[in-house]
């Protein structure tokens, strides 16, 4: 890829490609744990009559997604281009 | 049909349009992976089938509308189906016409939807008389589907050779579960195996990260650089018939028609073929690219809708790449839906028409207008706020949950195993279509093998 000098140096060259986009291994592991934890916890505290546990699990997954989106920075840098013909 | 139900359908469609507009923009979101788990969960909650169908139709239309955005803005495919468009979108991007590119693609999508809905409804009804014959041969058909799709892959012999081993793995696990008693004998664990195949590539990569040598040898990247233009906001009310030129309208309508008729084939292949066919003689690179992306987008959209609706209305068995992938839960999501009792059997013809119309119209109204007007702002928000890690975490957690629900803790191991194997097969170029067909035909294959 093109060589560009990024400002956040300790972060750079630390990402790998999974499924067409870049992730940081530590962040990925963290995210997998957080989402799995919130999902399964929600599932187990749900009242035991279907489809309640499934609903709770789904909400748990979304909570996990929210937490991860809040704490983990996307590995993309946006640059505004001024070039226009 | 009463007003309350219609309201619920509209609400479901609005919800789907909003969620899948966001997901569609996030790069690297595979159609099957993002649509199948959510649809499965909705079906399992026992929600009214007609509401789920409007949700699903709205979801695919919105997803198709928005997955052109990352292609145009960054040259990153928003999904597998938008991969063929990347090269043409990059031409427009190079000329600084990202906004034009988005408008053309989104308008092509609208044309695709408009053509595909009536065509699939007509075609489905025409196919109903032969459906009884087809249904009697469902099991061998899935097997021949696997063979057929295997022959369409790059490494034909490799794909053919993996059919029986993969079927053995699936049936082997099922028999193990019956043997240890976590699942009653005769009940086929299906949902979680399906999802295991879906996220197989990710599971394989995750396991490889545990291998130190492999981890160290992986290519490292900095950040993904994405350039975009902030200006150029579209003024007025977006209208696809104005945004597309006469020729573009014509070719996108035609490709959409072909996309609907060839619902049983892989849409990616046809997209590449027709896209080339229509544009090879155009010299001006900008005209060529905008013609290509509008027709391709129309086609993929049409292939989505017809691939879902035709098998659903006419057959009740998932005999198209779309039906067996993203739309799978509408056909088979035990215990709610089985191949003998699913949306095909529950909904009437009028129900299908209503659900499709509501879903498609809601998604077009919401997503098309928003995309044409605010594509840059939305892109910037998603690219800077939604980390890829969170998306992977979300889907991994859903798979874990459904695996546990299917057959308890032991099945989490089982799904990881299926995922590893499926991931390897995927990497070898044996696509989802082949793998899902094997999943469906595994019991039949094994019963024929032992005679």
TrEMBL record, chain A:
Q: Spell out where the chain crosses the membrane.
A: 28-47, 53-72
| Superkingdom to which the source organism belongs | Bacteria
Q: State the UniProt keywords alphabetically.
A: Membrane, Transmembrane, Transmembrane helix
Q: What is this protein called?
A: Heme ABC transporter
Q: Report the source organism.
A: Aquibacillus rhizosphaerae
UniProtKB/TrEMBL annotation, chain B:
Please provide the record's keywords in A-Z order: Membrane, Transmembrane, Transmembrane helix
Q: Which Pfam families match?
A: TctA (PF01970)
Q: Where are the transmembrane segments?
A: 6-26, 38-62, 68-86, 106-128, 158-177, 189-210, 249-274, 352-371, 392-422
**InterPro entries, from UniProt?**
DUF112_TM (IPR002823)
Q: Which residues form a coiled coil?
A: none
Q: Where is the DUF112 domain?
A: 10-431
Q: Where is the signal peptide?
A: none
Q: What is this protein called?
A: Tripartite tricarboxylate transporter permease
Q: What organism does the UniProt record list as the source? A: Aquibacillus rhizosphaerae
């Amino acid at each position: 890829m093109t060589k560009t000098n990024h400002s956040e140096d300790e972060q750079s060259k630390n990402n790998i490609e999974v499924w067409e986009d870049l992730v940081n291994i530590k962040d990925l592991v963290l995210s997998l744990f957080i989402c799995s934890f919130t999902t399964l916890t929600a599932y187990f505290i749900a009242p035991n009559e279907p489809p309640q546990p499934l609903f709770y699990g789904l909400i748990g997954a979304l909570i996990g997604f929210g937490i991860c989106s809040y704490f983990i920075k996307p590995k993309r840098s946006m640059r505004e281009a001024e070039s226009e013909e | 049909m009463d007003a309350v139900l219609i309201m619920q359908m509209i609400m479901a469609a609005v919800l789907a349009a909003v969620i899948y507009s966001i997901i569609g923009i996030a790069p690297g979101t595979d159609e099957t992976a993002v649509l199948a788990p959510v649809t499965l969960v909705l079906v399992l909650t026992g929600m009214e089938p007609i509401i789920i169908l409007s949700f699903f139709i709205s979801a695919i239309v919105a997803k198709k509308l928005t997955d052109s955005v990352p292609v145009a803005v960054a040259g990153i495919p928003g999904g597998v189906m938008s991969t063929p468009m990347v090269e043409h979108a990059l031409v427009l991007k190079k000329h600084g016409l990202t906004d034009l590119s988005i408008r053309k693609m989104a308008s092509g999508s609208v044309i695709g939807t408009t053509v595909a809905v009536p065509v699939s409804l007509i075609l489905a009804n025409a196919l109903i008389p032969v459906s009884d014959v087809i249904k009697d041969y469902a099991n061998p058909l899935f097997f021949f589907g696997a063979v057929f799709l295997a022959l369409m892959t790059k490494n034909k012999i490799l794909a053919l050779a993996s059919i029986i081993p993969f079927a053995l793995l699936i049936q082997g696990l099922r028999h193990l579960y019956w043997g240890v008693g976590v699942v009653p004998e005769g009940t086929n664990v299906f949902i979680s195996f399906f999802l295991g195949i879906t996220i197989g590539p990710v599971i394989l990569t995750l396991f490889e990260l545990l291998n130190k040598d492999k981890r160290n040898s992986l290519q490292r990247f900095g950040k993904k650089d994405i350039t975009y233009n902030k200006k150029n906001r579209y003024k007025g009310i977006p209208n696809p018939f104005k945004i597309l030129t006469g020729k573009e309208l014509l070719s996108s309508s035609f490709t959409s028609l072909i996309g609907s008729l060839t619902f049983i084939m892989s849409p990616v292949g046809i997209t590449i073929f027709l896209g080339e066919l229509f544009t090879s003689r155009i010299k001006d690179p900008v005209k060529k690219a905008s013609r290509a992306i509008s027709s391709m987008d129309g086609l993929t959209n049409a292939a989505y809708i017809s691939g879902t609706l035709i098998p659903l209305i006419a057959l009740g068995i998932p005999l198209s790449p779309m039906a067996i992938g993203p739309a799978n839960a509408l056909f088979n999501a035990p215990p709610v839906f089985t191949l003998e009792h699913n949306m095909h059997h529950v909904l009437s013809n009028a129900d299908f028409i209503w659900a499709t119309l509501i879903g498609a119209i809601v998604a077009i109204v919401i997503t098309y207008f928003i995309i044409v007007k605010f594509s840059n702002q939305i892109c910037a928000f998603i690219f800077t706020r939604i980390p890829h890690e969170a998306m992977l975490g979300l889907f991994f957690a859903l798979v874990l949950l459904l695996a546990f629900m299917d057959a308890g803790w032991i099945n989490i191991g089982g799904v990881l195993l299926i995922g590893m194997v499926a991931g390897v097969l995927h990497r070898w170029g044996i696509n989802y279509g082949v793998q899902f067909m094997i999943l469906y035909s595994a019991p039949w294959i094994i019963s024929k093998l032992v005679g």
